[in-house]
């Protein structure tokens, strides 16, 4: 199939999906619904927290990220940022918003840089953040060609239910789960993510040796996640 025809067919499927959405009157089409889940567990100190937020802010300002956002069929993504720690601590600190223009990117970056740490110290509940993120994706007003949960963490799950069932349930609903494993606490954390956390078409793990490498890693991760890929569309 010619590339132009492929785009037309995919876009037609996109519109058809929107027409079947129960809240179509209040919904907006985007290329990607992206949850950015920021680890705030007890293993993350305030300096490490700030390095995560600074890394995200700088990554979004990358011209490559901006160009990829605009290269999608709609040219827009929707993003939320959630701080999380133990099983009952998941706080959306940046509610769902559209990102398409330079102004949107600069506003998001500024909000990330000034965002205080809201999540209380606690254990690491990867299962909890997956379940919470799935609910957030289901309840927002956007309809995306892809739904992605982007989890950054430096630890294995140690709070609440084991993450395996939550991850399988989310993936079965059409969600992609990717991981950014920060290896300062567990040198094989990337393998743990591969075995128990990530899933869905094209799911992957990016490694950062420590929080000072986080910015480079999250930039690579965003570039890979935002890059348009003509894969299956999520059912409403």
Describe the 3D structure.
With about 240 residues, this protein is of the alpha/beta class. The protein has one domain: Rossmann fold. The protein is built from 8 helices and 6 strands, in the order H-E-H-H-E-E-H-H-E-H-E-H-E-H. The chain has helices spanning about 5-20, 45-60, 65-70, 100-115, 125-140, 165-170, 190-195, 215-225, and strands spanning about 30-40, 75-85, 90-100, 140-155, 175-180, 205-210. The protein has a 6-stranded mixed β-sheet, with helices on both faces. Strand 4, helix 6 and strand 5 form a beta-alpha-beta unit. The protein is globular, with a radius of gyration of 17 Å. It starts with a helix and ends in a 10-residue tail after the last helix.
């Amino acid at each position: 199939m010619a590339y132009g025809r492929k785009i037309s067919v995919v876009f037609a499927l996109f519109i058809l999906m929107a027409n079947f959405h129960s809240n179509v009157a209040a919904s907006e089409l985007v290329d990607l619904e992206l949850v950015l889940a920021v680890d705030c567990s007890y293993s993350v100190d305030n300096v490490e927290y700030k390095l995560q937020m600074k890394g995200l802010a700088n990554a979004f300002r990358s011209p490559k990220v901006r160009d990829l956002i605009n290269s999608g069929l709609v040219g827009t993504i929707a993003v939320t940022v959630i701080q999380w720690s133990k099983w009952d601590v998941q706080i959306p600190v940046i509610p769902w918003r559209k990102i398409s223009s330079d102004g949107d990117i600069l506003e998001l970056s500024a909000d990330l840089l000034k965002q205080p740490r809201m999540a209380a110290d606690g254990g690491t509940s990867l299962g909890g953040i997956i379940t919470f993120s799935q609910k957030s994706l289901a309840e927002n007003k956007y309809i995306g060609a892809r739904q992605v949960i982007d989890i950054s963490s430096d630890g294995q799950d140690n709070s609440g239910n084991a993450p395996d069932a939550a991850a399988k349930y989310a993936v079965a609903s059409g969600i992609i789960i990717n991981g950014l494993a920060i290896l300062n606490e567990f040198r094989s954390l990337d393998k743990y993510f591969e075995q128990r956390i990530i899933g869905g078409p094209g799911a992957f793990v990016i490694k950062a040796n420590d929080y000072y490498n986080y910015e480079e890693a999250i930039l690579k991760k965003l570039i890979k996640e935002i890059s348009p890929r003509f894969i299956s569309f999520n059912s409403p």
